[in-house]
Amino acid sequence: MNTQESIYGAHRPALEQVMDGLRRHIENIRSEMEQKLSMDPIEHCLSRIKSEESMREKCRRNNLPETTESALNILTDAIGLRIVCAFVDDVYTIRDCLKESGEYEVVKEKDYIRHAKPNGYRSYHMILRTKAGYFAEIQLRTISMDTWAALEHHLKYKKSVGSRAALIEEELKRCADELASTDLSMQTIRDMILEA
Ligand code: 0O2
Fold first, then answer.
1. How far apart are the CA of 101 and the centre of ligand 1, in A?
2. Which residue of 18, 113, 138, 159 has the smallest Cβ count within 10 Å?
3. pTM of this prediction?
4. How much helix, strand and coil, in percent to the nearest 5, is found in the chain?
């Protein structure tokens, strides 16, 4: 393959279209929930097409050839959306709304909220497939989970920590667990307000 050519071949406009369609779909879910709850369930929503360099790097990491086939049909996160909610319950309500949609097929789900990764990472991941066969990864999480993931990602790029690595990992895990406990308390407070 010519290295000057995009790994997405001629599919870039279609990927942009799918991403915009998903954003619109999420906005509709948001409006419907806002009417029911009298509260906006989404703090913010980010979307991106994975950069050329990150996609090529991910292919190399997975021992895949750097081809359009790998980028679009073997790896499934060329399109990515991150939905950040204030409360844990809203994550699951949005998940349910996405699953009910006839437009997108859910091909994979990972609940790293109920089953946190050993390092403390929490988030709900879904892989959706459009009728035209494009994949998108949706990450749903609370503000606390998002803050932790951003800081942990940031720290990964810091210089080698040598003998303190184990202690740092332990501290990161402790922070993740404390944030998860705060999320549960905030959810309880919200439920009390809604019931009142
Ligand atoms: P980028 O640049 O963030 O997109 P799989 O083949 O499905 O088992 P994969 O693709 O690693 O493996 O899927 P997984 O576990 O669902 O993770 C996908 C994405 O979740 C990652 O994307 C990260 O964005 C995020 N993520 C997963 N684990 C962690 C973690 O421990 N810390 C943080 N900060 N983020 C995490 P990529 O492809 O790694 O990169």
1. 25
2. 159
3. 0.93
4. 55, 20, 30
**Tens of each residue's pLDDT in the chain, 196 residues:** 445 689 999 999 999 999 999 999 999 999 998 998 788 899 999 999 999 999 999 999 999 999 999 999 999 999 999 999 999 999 999 999 999 988 899 999 999 999 999 999 999 999 999 999 999 999 999 999 999 999 999 887 666 767 778 888 899 999 999 999 999 999 999 999 888 8
Do residues 51 and 94 lie in contact, with contact meaning Cβ atoms separated by under 8 Å? Answer: no
Report the separation in Å between the CA atom of 77 and the middle of ligand 1, taken as the mean of its atom positions.
10
Instruction: List the structure tokens of 150.
Output: 């951003």
Q: Which residues line ligand 1 (CB under 6 A)?
A: 54, 58, 77, 110, 117, 119, 121, 125, 149, 152-153
Helix/strand/coil for 6: coil
Distance of CA 126 to the CA centre of its chain: 8
139 CA: nearest ligand 1 atom: 20
Does residue 1 contact residue 55 with C-beta atoms inside 8 Å?
no
Report how far ligand 1's centroid is from the alpha carbon of 123 (Å): 10
> Ligand 1: which atom is nearest the Cα of residue 76?
10
Continuous H helices in 39-142 = 52-61, 68-69, 88-100
